[in-house]
Automatic annotation (TrEMBL):
The keyword Ion transport does not apply. It comes from Enorma phocaeensis. Transmembrane segments: none annotated. This is LuxR C-terminal-related transcriptional regulator. PANTHER family: DNA-BINDING TRANSCRIPTIONAL ACTIVATOR DEVR_DOSR. Residues 717-782 form the HTH luxR-type domain. Pfam families: GerE, TPR_MalT, WHD_MalT. It comes from the Bacteria. Keywords: DNA-binding, Transcription, Transcription regulation. The keyword Transmembrane does not apply.
């Protein structure tokens, strides 16, 4: 049986609109996406002239001919010569009444981009042709197979809607193979065999060798290609491949990645055709490339796969010397933890790294143990030993940077350390001031204590901080004092305008961390002023800028910021997508570097009506907040817990609110409380907190302002008519597991009539009419 053609409704609609409003439709996707079959399907009823550019006799029609065709379809566009492409463009211009459908495995050629920019050419690409749930179900139906709802979800998750894979799987299941992981492996092997014949063998041997050697790498650029292959002509081969196929996806200028299943195929070919020693050499070459670019994460991954332990140890020590900031440690955490103690104890840089890494993991005893080990190492050295200066420098760095060290002492520590630096007694390695977060006040450390007298400290510590932090100090004091004023509810627009005028200087002479903190403060101020659209534009701008500059370490935080903005404007789709794909998953192994993400996740869970999940997300952060004196995080933690407890009718919410207000009051922090607007306002009105009535009035007024801007912020979506009872939830879980009414009777040991009553009530409360709709709604509302 030949492959079944199923076309997404979205593709059919896009094609029809293009044929009405445009002139050209350009289908571009790797092999196996059914481009030809899809074109035949959507062109049913049209008069078509089909040509193949790979045919030696290929020739464009001179004109409209005898009127026998309305649509010209040309396959294998990359095989067209330059003059033929120019001729095609001229033909399109000269025949406005005709339509053109072009088929290719590569992107739109440069000669035709003008049509796309003018709105005359509609591209239909890889993602458009991936089958959606409805189209996938039609394929299985055509093969006489009816997978269950759960099986269909699993099939889509594994196949990503790849038409060839879905057809092969449907055929195998029609032949009697059950759906299970082993079946998916057989499908993958069949796809690989097809690729080997239809794609891979079409390249010459040098190109095939190059592609296999690139398979292990997630991102490819010409310099990496030359380094890994050892062939200076490899860049030209890569250019030819890019022109001939869409197996590569361009992420940004000059950087590409393989289409995932083709990458898997090439890796399979690599291990089929190369010895273990040859594969290790490929990874070693990749490690050298990344090492030269100071991309230690990828370099270590390569050296780990090549088994080069000497290079792993060397790189970890160098990373600890050059990038001791907490963010850099967390990225390489697993490699540090695999080092033997004896190796760490022989290196001051590694002892410093381990002390900070343990602190990040909330292992404060371990952090202090490595701190003492470093101190003891230095005490055992002779006074004349130059290593004593290194140890002294690293201890001074830890005294400032360790999160468990109280910030109050820094007002004295910083000037003292700067004096030692001026006397050349210590040399400090860089700090991670913000820990990749959009804040200085609540970044690497919590500077709430400094906020009490921010103007005085700004005047006395501005210069010492700039000297101590070097590049990280550029713009930091001004950003920090602006943020301090903002947290206290003051108008900081004048300060922000001054900071924004310094962004170019910060980019040139400072660090992306401070730039991120400045823009983060701008975004928060715009949200607080009721301008979420402006905030979204600012966030989109820095996201694009950081992407172009390869600053991927900020990506998770930026995604969480997008989720928070979506919560303010009731963009449920963005919130649910973030929860499903990017929210932290393991509540038993909390990483404090991701605390912004955990707090965002709890907010999203409250908005989607799951206060119990929010409490579970928040619980592991309590020890960190207390141990490391995180006042700002503590306020957010307590208030989010209060909102969750209130929705669960748990009187503990009063203690939560009191804890938050007790935390905020000494620092006069208004924004950390008021930011929760509608969700926190009734709690403030009813909490009975009487420590400072004037301060409470300020909080209520500020929260009311936010509630007026964002009346539904963190409010659970009212998609359920009434709460489900415990028995109804039990039935719903079984219904979502595709159990029949009879099977539900057997599991719960209840009568069929009772099950039917529960199902009827569930349908009414969810506002649905069918079991499939009930499952979809239950998943959306996180009821199961």
């Amino acid at each position: 049986m030949s492959n079944v053609v199923a076309v997404n409704e979205s593709v059919r609609v896009a094609f029809e609109q293009a044929m009405e409003a445009g002139r050209v439709v350009y289908f571009s996707a790797p092999c196996g996406f059914g481009k030809t079959a899809t074109i035949d399907c959507v062109l049913a009823g049209w008069r078509v002239l089909r040509l193949d550019a790979s045919d030696p006799a290929f020739e464009l029609p001179a004109d409209a001919g005898d009127g026998t065709w309305d649509v010209l379809v040309i396959d294998h566009i990359p095989d067209m010569l330059d003059d033929e492409l120019q001729g095609l463009c001229a033909l399109i211009r000269s025949l406005p009444e005709k339509r053109f459908v072009l088929e290719s495995r590569s992107a739109v050629p440069g000669e035709m981009l003008s049509f796309q920019y003018a709105g005359l050419l509609t591209p239909i690409g890889t993602h458009d042709l991936m089958l959606d749930r409805q189209a996938t179900a039609k394929v299985f139906e055509a093969y006489g197979v009816e997978p269950t709802t759960v099986e269909l979800s699993n099939i889509l998750a594994v196949s990503h809607g790849y038409p060839l894979g879905i057809n092969i799987l449907a055929r195998r299941m029609a032949e009697g193979a059950p759906w299970r992981p082993e079946t998916a492996d057989l499908v993958r092997r069949e796809i690989f065999s097809y690729y080997d014949e239809a794609v891979f063998r079409q390249f010459d041997k040098p190109t095939r060798r190059m592609l296999m050697k690139l398979a292990p790498f997630n991102e490819v650029e010409v310099e990496l290609v030359v380094m890994v292959t050892g062939d200076n002509a490899a860049g030209e081969m890569l250019s030819r491949v890019l022109r001939k196929t869409s197996m590569f996806i361009q992420d940004r200028l000059g950087r590409y990645r393989f289409w995932p299943i083709f990458k898997s195929f090439l890796e399979w070919e690599l291990y089929q055709c190369h010895s273990a020693e040859q594969v290790r050499d490929i990874f070693d070459r990749g490690g050298i490339y990344y090492e030269l670019h100071e991309d230690y994460g990828n370099a270590l991954a390569c050296y780990s796969k090549s088994g080069n332990h000497r290079k792993i140890s060397e790189l970890l020590e160098r990373n600890a010397e050059l990038h001791p900031g907490a963010a850099h440690y967390s990225e390489l955490e697993r490699y540090y933890l695999e080092l033997p103690d004896a190796e760490i104890l022989a290196s001051p840089a590694l002892m410093q790294a381990m002390s900070m890494l343990c602190a990040i993991k909330t292992d404060y005893e371990g952090s202090e143990r490595w701190y003492r080990a470093l101190r003891d190492y230095g005490m055992a050295l002779k006074r004349s030993d130059v290593a004593r200066k290194e140890v002294r420098s690293r201890l001074a760095w830890l005294d400032i940077a360790l999160p468990q060290r109280p910030v109050e002492a820094l007002a004295e520590t910083i000037p003292a350390v700067v004096k030692l630096m001026m006397n050349h007694d210590v040399e400090l390695t860089p700090f991670s001031v913000t820990s990749n977060l959009p804040s200085i006040m609540n970044g690497g450390k919590d500077f709430s204590e400094w906020s009490r007298r921010d103007d005085v400290l700004y005047a006395t510590l501005k210069r010492p901080v700039e000297v101590l932090l070097g590049r990280d100090g550029v713009g930091l004091p001004d950003a920090a004092v602006a943020e301090s004023k903002f947290e206290k509810g003051e108008d900081v627009m004048t300060r922000l305008l001054s900071l924004m005028s310094r962004l170019t200087e910060i980019r040139r002479s400072g660090t992306p961390d401070i730039e991120f903190a400045v823009v983060g403060l701008l975004i928060r101020a715009q949200v607080a002023a009721g301008r979420p659209g402006d905030a979204r534009e600012a966030l989109a701008s820095i996201k694009e800028s950081f992407s172009e500059r390869g600053l991927v370490r900020f990506g998770p935080t930026i995604a969480a910021m997008e989720c928070r903005l979506a919560l303010h404007v009731d963009d449920d789709a963005t919130v649910e997508a973030w929860l499903a794909a990017e929210a932290p998953r393991d509540p038993l192994n909390v990483h404090v570097m991701k605390r912004y993400l955990y707090l965002t996740k709890a907010m999203a869970e409250l908005a989607t009506g799951d206060p119990r999940a929010a409490l579970l997300t928040l619980a592991p952060l309590g020890r960190y907040v207390e141990q490391c004196h995180r006042h700002l995080d503590g306020i957010s933690l307590s208030l989010l817990a209060a909102i969750a407890h209130r929705r669960l009718d748990d009187p503990a919410w009063r203690d939560d609110v009191a804890r938050a207000l007790d935390e905020a009051c000494p620092y006069r922090f208004v924004r950390p409380v008021a930011q929760f607007g509608t969700a926190v306002l009734p709690l403030l009105d009813a909490c009975g907190w009487d420590r400072d009535g004037k301060f409470l009035k300020r909080l209520v007024a500020a929260a009311r302002e936010q509630a007026a801007y964002y009346p539904d912020f963190l409010e659970p979506r009212r998609d359920v008519v009434a709460p489900l009872s415990g028995a109804e939830l039990q039935v719903l879980r079984l219904l979502c597991a595709d159990k029949s009414n009879a099977e539900i009777c057997a599991v719960l040991d209840i009568q069929l009539a009772t099950v039917k009553t529960h199902v009827s009530k569930i349908f009414r409360k969810l506002g649905v009419n069918r079991r499939t709709e009930a499952k979809t709604k239950a998943l959306k509302l996180h009821l199961v």
